[in-house]
Hints:
Elements: E1 18-19, H1 30-45, H2 47-69, E2 77-80, H3 83-93, E3 101-105, H4 110-119, E4 122-126, H5 135-141, E5 147-153, H6 165-175, E6 178-182, H7 194-197, E7 201-205, E8 217-221, H8 242-245, H9 253-262, H10 267-289, E9 302-309, H11 314-324, E10 327-328, E11 330-334, E12 337-343, H12 350-363
Parallel strand pairs: 1-10, 3-4, 3-5, 5-6, 6-7
Antiparallel strand pairs: 2-8, 7-8, 9-12, 11-12
The protein binds pyridoxal-5'-phosphate.
Pyridoxal-5'-phosphate is lined by residues 82-84, 109, 111-112, 153, 157, 182, 184-185, 205.
Amino acid sequence: xxxxxxxxxxxxxxxxVAFLNHGSFGAxxxxxxxxxxxxxAILERQPVDFFVRTSHEMLYEARRxxxxxxxxxxxxxxxxxxATTGTATVLHSLDIGPGDRVVVTDHTYxxxxxxxxxxxxxxxxxxLELDDPDPAxxxxxxxxxxxxxxxIDAITSSTGWALPWVEVVKGCRERGVLCHVDAAHxxxxxxxxxxxxxxxxxxxxxxxxxxxxxxAAVMVVREELRxxxxxxxxxxxxxxxxxxxWPGTIDPTAYLAAPAAxxxxxxxxxxxxxxxxxxxxxELVRDRIGALLPLRDSGCQMSLLDVGLPDLxxxxxxRERLRTAGVEVASTTWRGRGYLRISGAVYNxxxxxxxxxxxxxxxx
Length: 364
Ligand SMILES: Cc1ncc(COP(=O)(O)O)c(C=O)c1O
């Protein structure tokens, strides 16, 4: 399948906007939304049949398909509506609270930090320089016998950085410390043998780079930890996976339609396209407008452009001006400096980054 502009009609994206912010909210192809509507029609035609008699088998099949895609056994994976819920579930199940030392980095996602602060634990924030040659070693130096949990992002939000989470998982295991991988951006972007690695906790969104409907994410938990897992909201059932399959009445059609998205692409090709297009695009913008490019050769589909912004709200203001000029990008902030974060999805091609460079030249 050709990627780039030729397949963009598969999405209902606004043709007047160069969409370079797939990192914040992924866009779902219309055929996948049609598949979700098909499941909704089945549900609403006979809701009791659906919830009582048929949906368990459907969920089981969807779980198996997604698990194959993520290279993990279906028994170790449950659906959750988003990464935020998955992380909240891990913190709740471990009863993280006052007195617990939790190691994070200064790239950890803001909502995850907020969830940790709400639990009243002690945060050990490890600063990671963008040019650190061995960020896993830097992080692991902060892990001690007193550490209750390490939280590592697979791909950071503020800095679009593919961190060495596999090394961190292994390093924590060697030290006997639990590790939670915030892999919100990983499904569709990383291709790791999760079953072989067997992380303690791993939470990933399907509604970003796996092009699924919104409200589809997974939580993967190591076998011996599964019996400790408790959803933050308790319904009729206890235990893994039933407590997660039935969190009360919800619309599970995003989960059921997720496999339809996984069939759409050759994922090696999709990943290669994203890396190539975002890197070339970021270099194009750099060459045209002279922005700095704190790019790492990380295999990540997101790039960070330093356009000399002091911080948010300057970055937010620039983002809004670019939107008016027909380009959607993300504004981020890190260590008191504002950045633009641009993405490379399967439907992006060079023309999108040319439009970004032109819009930047026009508004700055
Ligand atoms: C690193 C990271 N973690 C967690 C999340 C939360 O994802 P969600 O809003 O789907 O729960 C995001 C969202 O962009 C993210 O970038």
